Amino acid sequence: MSNQAVSLSVLDLCPVPQGATPAQALSNAMALAQYAESLGYRRYWVAEHHNMTGIASAATSVVMGYLAAGTSRIRIGSGGIMLPNHAPLQIAEQFGTLESLYPGRIDLGLGRAPGTDQATAQALRHGRGDGSDFPQMLDELRRLFAEPQPGQRLQAVPGAGLKVPIWLLGSSTFSAQLSAELGLPFAFAGQFSPDFMFSALRTYREHFQPSESLTQPHVMLGINAYVGESREHAAMLATSHQQAFLNLIRGRPGPLPPPVDDMEPLWQPHEKHSVLSTLAGTLIGDKETVSQQLADLLERTGADELIVSSSIHDQALRKDSYQRMMEVAGKV
């Protein structure tokens, strides 16, 4: 795939299809990671979500170790670890361990949202706060990854002195500003926050300060993509994700539903507006259609990388969509 105009990666929420189990979802993730590696995808990131019966990647570091063990080249990362849910020392040790086992292949993407509802966040954080101290926690984590100094009493073992790339994830301008000030790469959640995309990317690029790890701004943009054998087929594939988001805004999240031919009987007009506006950063169509959508997206955003989420109920069709997406990227 040497003719690719943009680097592609995979964002996997490890969805649990309706009728399946979390164990099957994790097995699907392994098969997809191996397939993505064979296709030339650069990274395979999994995300931290809790108390959601449709997502199997809550123990994100554990899932990453599983995926890294079953692959050999593709970078394995978190998209992301919700740092306020954890002690920085624990994350430094976990990712230091992963980097020690799979050197040069581990990415640490960090977010500040809870990744769940407030009751579950309280159970996870046990008085650690509401995430407003995220910059301080990030600073502590980065110091734990630095080379240990003489007399330093607290060290991450393994972790200290290891070069684990840190990315900040964001769906608004907060993390864009912070990653710019620190000279870190920035990943924007365009897959569910399209309204803030341009302001966040502009903020990041305008305020970027070069650092030891990064000399110029580097943006990875999250998108949803459903590439089918026809535009109608792709639109049908996307209905599983639309139903899942509809269930989420109704307060009834659950396993990933099978696709339907027509969404109209399933939602009210205001629900349709909410779902489609939130998922507006989605590429849907056959290869020709998505190729044009992708070219337009890259022209408008100037993204250096794309990380693609495709919540498709059927595993074989999910793999097929990722294959078609890679073929599209080679033609843009």
Could you explain the architecture of this structure?
This protein is an alpha/beta fold and 332 residues long. The protein has a single domain, classed as TIM Barrel, CATH 3.20.20.30. Helix content is 42%, strand content 15%. The chain has helices spanning 22-39, 60-69, 88-101, 118-125, 134-145, 174-182, 197-207, 231-249, 269-278, 287-301, 315-329, and strands spanning 7-12, 43-46, 75-82, 106-111, 166-170, 186-188, 219-227, 282-285, 305-309. Strands 1-2-3-4-5-6-7-9 form an eight-stranded parallel barrel, surrounded by seven helices. α3 (88-101) packs across α5 (134-145) and α10 (287-301) packs across α11 (315-329). The longest helix is centred in the last third of the chain and has 19 residues, at 231-249. The termini are close together.
Main pleated sheet? 8 strands, parallel, barrel
CATH superfamily: Luciferase-like domain
The figure for the number of domains is: 1
Strand content: 15-25%
Content-based structural category? alpha/beta
Radius of gyration: 19 Å
InterPro entries: Bact_Lucif_Oxidored, CmoO-like, Luciferase-like_dom, Luciferase-like_sf
Family: To bacterial alkanal monooxygenase alpha and beta chains.
Protein name: Alkane 1-monooxygenase
Domain Luciferase-like: 18-304
Brief sketch in words of this structure:
This is Alkane 1-monooxygenase. With 332 residues, the chain is α/β, with parallel strands linked by helices.
Throw out a few tags for this protein:
332 residues; alpha/beta; TIM Barrel; 8-stranded parallel beta barrel; 9 strands; globular
